[in-house]
């Protein structure tokens, strides 16, 4: 099962709203215990593309976030980004750029008033699997 800390989920939503109409992005970090994944901390990053259709993470911020994650005894669980005007599913570009089959890809859609956040695994053949999670 995948568990997301409620406060960290709320931070993703807040970041997406604050950066609207551009896509926001960041890292998901936490711990893995057996079959369970616990997302404990997010690391918001700057979308240097300043676009509502794609994102590129700031490389310097990525490096610093990875250092903080390691120093906190956590692991990279995945990354996330928002879709300001489209559903919470990987776009063709998202699938094309999904190079790591071991991490989770989170997408928050702001398309409708009721925001939708989904987590996905994307395999080497670019097949997408939507995963269940619990916010707690």
Automatic annotation (TrEMBL):
Gene3D superfamilies from the UniProt entry: Cytidine Deaminase, domain 2
Keyword Transmembrane annotated: no
SMART domains, per database record: JAB_MPN
GO molecular function, one term: metalloexopeptidase activity
Keywords, alphabetical: Hydrolase, Metal-binding, Metalloprotease, Protease, Zinc
Ranges of residues in domain MPN: 2-136
Classification via PROSITE patterns: MPN (PS50249)
A Pfam family reported for this protein in Swiss-Prot or TrEMBL: Prok-JAB
GO biological process: proteolysis
Name of this protein: MPN domain-containing protein
Organism: Clostridium kluyveri (strain ATCC 8527 / DSM 555 / NBRC 12016 / NCIMB 10680 / K1)
């Amino acid at each position: 099962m995948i568990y997301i800390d409620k406060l960290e989920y709320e931070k993703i939503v807040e970041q997406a709203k604050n950066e609207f109409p551009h896509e926001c992005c960041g890292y998901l970090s936490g711990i893995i215990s057996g079959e369970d994944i616990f997302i404990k901390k997010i690391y918001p990053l700057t979308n240097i593309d300043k676009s509502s259709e794609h994102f590129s993470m700031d490389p310097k911020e990525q490096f610093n976030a990875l250092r903080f994650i390691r120093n906190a005894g956590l692991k990279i669980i995945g990354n996330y980004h928002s879709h300001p005007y489209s559903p919470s599913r990987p776009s063709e570009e998202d699938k094309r750029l999904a190079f790591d089959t071991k991490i989770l890809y989170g997408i928050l859609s702001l398309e409708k008033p009721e925001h939708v956040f989904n987590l996905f695994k994307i395999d080497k053949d670019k097949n997408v699997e939507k995963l269940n999670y619990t916010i707690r």
